[in-house]
Amino acid sequence: MAMISCNGATCKNDSAYEKITPEYLPCNTNNIMAFSRVFLPSIYITVFIVGFIGNSLVLCVLIKYHKRSNISDVCLFNLALSDLLFLISLPFWAHYAAITQWTFGSFMCHAVTVLYMLGFYGSIFFMILMTIERYSVIVHTYTWSFSKYRSVRANIALILFMWVLSLGASLPTVIFSQVRNESERWTCSVELPNGTIWRSLIYMELNILGLIAPLSVMVFCYSRIIPILMSMRSQKKHKAVKLILVLASVFFLFWTPYNIVIFLRFLHQFGYMNTCKWDQDLNMAMQWVETIAFSHCCLNPIIYAFVGEKFRILTLKILKEWFPLCFGHWRTTESRVLRE
Fold first, then answer.
1. What are the backbone dihedrals phi and psi of residue 14, each rounded to the nearest 5 degrees, phi first?
2. How far is CA 106 from the centre of its chain?
3. Where is the G-protein coupled receptors family 1 profile domain (predicted)?
4. What pTM value is reported for the model?
5. 6 three-state secondary structure
């Protein structure tokens, strides 16, 4: 992740990730720094623009046509909100990467880190909650038939609990984030106490909460959901199965490379692969896998929302109201779909 990788700064002294790697590796990373200054800002800004537009449309549709008692809509709303928090931090990291110096001060270093980490863990936890909700609806239909009438207060309490979990998971990185003056340049990075296990704990937290836990939940839930859907004589079963497979596959494809590199960093800080060549290769690999992982938040609106015909129609309806010259000629089958 940005705060503990070659995020947007450089891969040498001012990278947040470098702050929690062994300090005894005086490797020359000038080529990686030059690559980061060009590559990362353009990618971060592109992800920000595409993701901001898509997730903002999701929020607008859900606010206008929401059902407060529908936990799926509530989770989708908070998932889009988490992605937006994450995306808002990217322009700051892009600026940091471009000029290789943090110019926004200590408060903004903590504030941007909070946005980044809260958005990161929030999106994972709400995706897990949505998966469990789908599992309850399809596998435990009778139990869910009672729980679906939960009060608005119960849903609010559940959502607040997920945000508290996200904040708790974010605290180690947020607390240890500091602004320092190094070689006449200000840096915003994670400063861990020497001789502590915090470095290992943060790596483990990333791998467990960032990949192992959500994938375990998805594999378990979807392995029970798919056979039930396949046995149903429904015209929509193939679309439902396809959507489920896309959800699991895209998450796995986009986040696994990142977590593999994080795990290699975990080994690296214990002395394995302890050469300059490995250090440089891992730094360069982090640039690419980080970009792939970040772009996942751009796909969330498509995967969770725009795949659904009803949501597409509601989105188009809003766009026709706001931009009649651009979208006024588009036709929809609104009455048929909204009755389903």
1. -100, 10
2. 24
3. 54-304
4. 0.80
5. coil
